[in-house]
Amino acid sequence: MAQTSSTAVPHHIAIVMDGNGRWATRRFLPRIAGHQQGVGALNRCVQACIARGVGVLTVFAFSSENWNRPPDEVSGLLELLALSLAREVPSLKANGVQLHFVGDRQRLSEKFKAGLTQAEQATEGNQRLVLNVCFNYGGRWDIAQAARKLMQEGSEITEMALDRAMALAHVPDPDLLIRTGGEMRISNFLLWQAAYAELHFSDKLWPDFDDAALDAAIEVYRNRERRFGQTSEQLGADSKKTAMKAA
Ligand code: FPP
């Protein structure tokens, strides 16, 4: 979707919430304990985004490839999502959060799918923050499903048409993409939409990602010059930023 050029507060932040397993293993706990802590970190991050005026938060909760994890971890994550929905939807609703689940629902049980739809419907009028939870999601899946949709409609495959057919067509592209846990890759997340996102890699494990870590990421973002293929001169970059870059 459309790009935003302001570098004040990112309108759309996307996060690969990595490091839950290591957080738990370091404490001799089962990996699912790390994911449970991860839900807490996500709740705090939602509040922090609202307080800072971020409009869209997109998080990677379960990738198309995560089915290959040990079966007890997979079922634990599915259960955790169902439990978290039951527990968190009322407060998300009260806080003005509009919830979307982004990903392939075909493999999910009817009961599970109904839970996702109910949560989306319960929050659909909300305007303060759009929260996209990517579940059974992969960037390649998204591009393929968008292309398939256009082919079925008999539409020409153009960038604009693909953009409209993508699973995140309801929000602008992310401005800032954060990955926690110290790894420097995007792991099939938002391959299409992150074309011009600023990338930030944090060493913090996701359960430890706090307001200060979010502020640090936003500060790094504010000091980036977003050129979208243009030159600094074309953007009329202010002298302060130019001086800072030269220093
Ligand atoms: C990656 O950490 C994290 C995940 C695969 C799951 C992310 C899920 C949450 C943060 C909980 C929120 C989830 C729901 C269900 C809303 P990892 O397990 O790969 O960590 P590691 O790299 O340390 O092993």
Q: What attributes characterize this protein structure?
A:
single chain, 247 residues, alpha/beta, Undecaprenyl pyrophosphate synthetase, 6 strands, globular, binds farnesyl diphosphate
Describe the structure.
The protein is α/β, with parallel strands linked by helices. It has one domain: Undecaprenyl pyrophosphate synthetase (3-Layer(aba) Sandwich). It is built from 9 helices and 6 strands. The chain has helices at 20-25, 31-52, 71-94, 110-122, 139-153, 159-165, 211-222, 232-235, 239-246, and strands at 12-16, 56-63, 97-102, 129-137, 176-179, 198-201. The protein has a 6-stranded parallel sheet with strand order 3-4-2-1-5-6, with helices on both faces. The radius of gyration is 19 Å and the shape is globular. It binds farnesyl diphosphate. The site of farnesyl diphosphate has 19 residues, from helix 1, helix 2 and helix 3.
